[in-house]
Amino acid sequence: MTWLDHAQQKLARSGHRAGGARGAVLELLAEQHCCLSAQDIHARLLAGGRAVGVASVYRALDTLTELRLLHRVDVGGTATYEAADPTGEHHHHVICGDCGQIGAFEDADLERTIDDIASRTGYRVDAHDLVLRGSCPDCR
Fold it and tell me: What is the pLDDT of residues 23-58, one digit of tens each?
C-alpha cells in the first residue's frame, strides 16, 4: 500500500475528506522525498495549476500532522513537512545554517542507539526526530 492510499484511508476512518486542498497537498507530498514548507507546497500547487489558498494548505498540514501522517521538521524557524511512512521507515536531516540546504540521512547504528536508550530508560519510544545543524560543504 502506498503512503497516499494509507493517508486517504486514515483520513476517511477519522471522518475527514481527502478532496480539495487536502487532497492536493496529499498528492504533492506523496511524490516528495524530503521536507517542504507550507509556502513551498503552496507555490508548487499553484505552479501545477491547482488553485489552492495558502490558508487551506496550512489547515491541511495541521490535520495531516495531527493524524501523524506527516512529520514536522523545524528548519531555521520554519516548519517543514514530509510524509510519515506507515511502516516506521524514516530518515533524519542535516541542515546548513548558512544557505538552508537540507540533506537527509539514515543510520542503522543511530537507530540501535535510540533503541538502547529506550531500554535503559524504560521508555517506549514511539517516534523521534534528529536534526543536525551546521555548515554544508559549499558554505564551509
Answer: 999 999 999 888 899 999 999 999 999 989 999 999
For domain 3-83, the CATH class is: mainly alpha
Q: 26 and 16 in contact (C-beta within 8 Å)?
A: no
92-134 maps to which CATH number?
3.30.1490.190
What angle do the packed helices 3-13 and 20-30 form, to 10 degrees? Answer: 150
Cβ partners under 8 Å of residue 8, min gap 6 = 18, 26
CA distance 97 to 75: 9
Q: With beta carbons less than 8 A apart as the criterion, state whether 32 and 82 touch.
A: yes
Q: Where are the domains of the chain?
A: 3-83, 92-134
Pairing of strands 102-105, 131-134: unpaired
Q: What pTM value is reported for the model?
A: 0.79
The stretches in the chain having pLDDT less than 50 are none
**Pairwise CA distance, residues 100 & 87, whole Å:** 29
- C-beta separation of 62 from 46 below 8 A: no
CB 83 within 8 A of CB 52: no
